[in-house]
Amino acid sequence: IFEEAGCNQTTLAGQITCLKAVPSQTLVNLATVARYVVQDGTIVDTEELDVTNKNGSTADVNVIFGTTANDGASFSTYPKVNVTSEAQGIELALGISAAYAQDIINSGLFPFYDTGNLTLDSFNVSQRVATDKTFRCVDEATVYAGATSGAFKSAYYYTITRTYEGYDPNNLGLSGLSQGPTEPGYPYGDPELPYFRLHGSDLGFSYGNQYPLRDTQDLEASQLISGYFAQFAKSGNPNPSLRYLQVRGYTNTTQGVRESGPWQPVSSKTGPTKKLDWPAPTVIFPDLPQCAFLNYSIEYYFEGGS
User: Fold this and answer.
1) pLDDT value for 279
2) What Pfam families does the database record attribute to this sequence (predicted)?
């Protein structure tokens, strides 16, 4: 990063001074960017986050973790050839061996849904594996450990199941697979039909500025979900006061909060968690058996994982 930003001073202090003067837009557009937490010795002073002990090494703060339902679809490779078997499709999509692909099938934990398009259907299995292995399992294990050990002041978990487009290197959106198929009355896609909830596809709902709106529920979900996150940012608790919502005239959000029930913090191996949509029901941690199969069980960190 120093080199690409032109900060070639002979001392580290000089390089840091130089880097501080580089515009942020320039930094994020460099070929090499700071993707990971930096152990700076002040804010972050340990090599890794200890989520299994309450020993003062973590900040005493409330946390919220979650994923979109199909985050892994953005990081799996849609096969560029028409595959001839489920195993071949999984092998190509995940870049794994034929033996590992067969292990996934033999587990019986990642069901194959037959739409008649073998390439798409095997990709659907693959993206679930990728979602679990890359995002869901580690987040669930982290939240569970930090919540039950006391390392986190409190911890909330969610899965967003209403999304729009997102990071789509496979161009799934060209066939309606990132927003719902286009139907009469649904020029931007029908969100009630199957589509992949891609990485980054939740932002319009999280920030309350979703556009376009595919149906009435898109507006209501955007209001409800952004309300949860706004309340968490203000108080460390995602549950807004019904009285506050009523006084502000937030009729839809008031209804959504009532129908959804309270968002409880994680307290056990099963959650609880929220499925963020309209409304937002309380559910257990998704894919617990699948995560255990992938060697990322809910007890991963208590079992010595790092």
Assistant:
1) 98
2) COesterase
Cross-strand pairs, 66: 158
Q: Is residue 8 in a domain?
A: no
Q: Could you tell me the CATH number of the domain that includes residue 144?
A: 3.40.50.1820
Alpha helices in 3-79 (DSSP H): 12-20, 24-28
- Euclidean distance between CA atoms 77 and 287, whole angstroms: 22
Q: What is the rounded distance in angstroms from the CA atom of residue 21 to the CA atom of residue 151?
A: 36
Task: Give Cα 205 distance to the centre of its chain.
Answer: 13
Distance CA(275)–CA(259), nearest Å, equals 13
- Among 103, 145, 67, 73, smallest CA distance to 290 is for 103
User: Which residue is it, tokens 């309270």?
Assistant: 262
Q: What's the pLDDT tens digit per position in 239-284? A: 999 999 999 999 999 999 999 999 999 999 999 999 999 999 999 9
Distance of alpha carbon 208 from alpha carbon 233, whole angstroms:
14
What is the helix (H) or strand (E) element at residue 155, kind and residue range?
Answer: strand 154-160
- Report the chain's mean pLDDT, rounded to a whole number: 96
Total domains, the chain: 1
The partner residues of 64 in beta bridges, in order of sequence, read 156
CA atoms of 71 and 275, how far apart (whole Å)? 14
Within a domain: 20: no
**What is the side-by-side strand order in the sheet with 154-160?**
62-68, 154-160, 273-276, 282-283
Q: Report yes or no on 157 lying in a domain.
A: yes
Q: Global pTM?
A: 0.91
Beta bridge partners of 273: 283
Domain that holds residue 190: 59-293
- Non-local CB neighbours of 77 within 8 Å, separated by 6+ positions: 92, 93, 94, 95, 170
197 with 203: CB under 8 angstroms? no
Distance CA 154, CA 254 (A): 24
- SS3 category, 218: helix
Q: What are 144's two structure tokens?
A: 């569970």
Taking the C-alpha atoms of residue 253 and residue 228, their distance in angstroms, rounded to an integer, is 9
The whole-number average pLDDT for the span 113-130 is: 98
